[in-house]
Amino acid sequence: MDNRQAAVATTVVVLGTGGTIAGRAQCRDDHTGYTAGQIGVQALLHGIPVPTGHHVEHEQVAQIDSKDMGPAVWRPLLARVQHHLQRPDVAGLVVTHGTDTLEETAYLLQRVLCPAKPVVLTCAMRPATALAPDGPQNLADALLVAAHPGARGVVVVCAGRAHRADAVQKIHPYRLDAFSSGDAGPLGQVEQGRLTLWRAWPAAAEVAGFNGNPWPSPQHQHDELLPRLLAAEGWHRVETIVSHAGADGALVRALLAYAGPGVAPLRGLVVAGTGNGTLHQDVLAALRQAQAQGVVVWRTTRCAEGRVVPGDAPEQDGIPAIALPLAQARLALQLALLHGDALGAAKVAG
Ligand code: SIN
After folding, report:
1. Which CATH topology does 236-349 take?
2. Is residue 196 flagged as an active site residue?
């Protein structure tokens, strides 16, 4: 963004997708028996302070409980975020979203759009109708971060803390401060209308690569991945499983056998291993069978914190480790498969 653009970029666009932040309960003290995705984004913005020198636009992209998030909403969301990012008058975006799959949407937006402006996802743990809802403060904080000079990349703002998309995980089903960035720690903190940064803003090249290899360049990702993701048929079937005491390979074999009209074949599998990504021997045998049938298999850890620490041979047992939480790792594999398709297409075209 040049200085001329910066001088006129005073709009913050708020895109609504639903979630508890837009939830409605029958009783004001009911924090669990409510329906998510009921109240429009325009109403959520009512009375929320607008950062000085800025004005706010809003748009309802979806109205769902984010447990149901997936390509059907991600496609229009990617398209609308990309559209608004390209507007010179837009300083940044805020996306209101359910907490349950927030980390997946955040990771997807960061990896695919690599935005040079801030895209701030925010949420709530209590419905909008609660006696003391947390959504209004989170939304105010998110607007502040979106309007912050120098802000860039996809960031999650919840309970006064800002998190990067590659580290953030929902770690608690009920408490207001439900997100953690684990060992990495939060990007920063919003207190009394002021942002204090602890870490650098995400830059596209910084998002965790795979086995130490950088991802393809942001421009390449954007140009190749975005059109494929916007097409309904661009998404491959990538599943996740967890290795555990008493596990066998039955789940993997069932996934391999699952077929039928309209059923996309399994293309990728991310396994959350025990401890440092170790796998039950029976699960490992079934995963080898999957690999032999062309399924790409990656491993991560089922531990709540930390990432698999690769030894001298990062592809231990022939299954490479990825330094991402399970939810982000599944999307990373989805994108890697799409990237592989693009390389294949380029070869055919060449
Ligand atoms: C949702 O993810 O949409 C419901 C739960 C929440 O937002 O906290």
Report:
1. Rossmann fold (3.40.50)
2. no
Domain ranges within the chain, ordered by starting residue: 3-197, 236-349
Q: What is the pLDDT of residues 12-28, one digit of tens each?
A: 999 999 999 999 999 99
For ligand 1, whether the C-beta of 73 sits within 6 Å is: no
Q: Where are the alpha helices (DSSP H) in 3-121?
A: 3-8, 41-44, 71-85, 102-113
Atom of ligand 1 nearest to the CA of 101: 2
Q: Which pLDDT tens digit goes with each residue over 170-207?
A: 999 999 999 999 999 999 999 999 999 999 998 755 44
Distance CA 254, CA 33 (A): 34
Q: What is the mean pLDDT of residues 29-42?
A: 95
Q: Can you give the pLDDT at residue 204?
A: 57
Tally the C-alpha atoms within 13 A of residue 91's C-alpha that lie toward its C-beta.
Answer: 25
List beta partners, residue 321: 299
Residue whose Cα lies nearest atom 2 of ligand 1: it is 98
| Closest ligand 1 atom number to CA of residue 67 | 2
- Confidence band for 7, pLDDT divided at 50, 70 and 90: low
Q: Is 9 in the pocket of ligand 1 (CB under 6 A)?
A: no
Mean pLDDT of the chain: 90
Edge-to-edge strand list for the sheet holding 237-242 = 237-242, 266-273, 296-301
- Distance from the CA of 292 to the center of ligand 1, in angstroms? 38
* Beta carbons of 195 and 144 less than 8 angstroms apart: yes
pLDDT over 50 at 212, yes or no: no
Annotated catalytic residue within 10, 11, 17, 20: 20
- The CA distance from 54 to 237, in Å, is 42
CATH no. for 3-197: 3.40.50.1170
Task: Output the pTM of the full model.
Answer: 0.92
Domains 3-197 and 236-349 share a fold: yes
Atom of ligand 1 nearest to the CA of 102: 2
Instruction: Give tens-digit pLDDT for 238-254.
Output: 999 999 999 999 999 99
Look at the chain and count its residues.
350
Residue nearest to atom 1 of ligand 1 (CA): 98
For ligand 1, is residue 19 a contact (CB within 6 Å)? yes
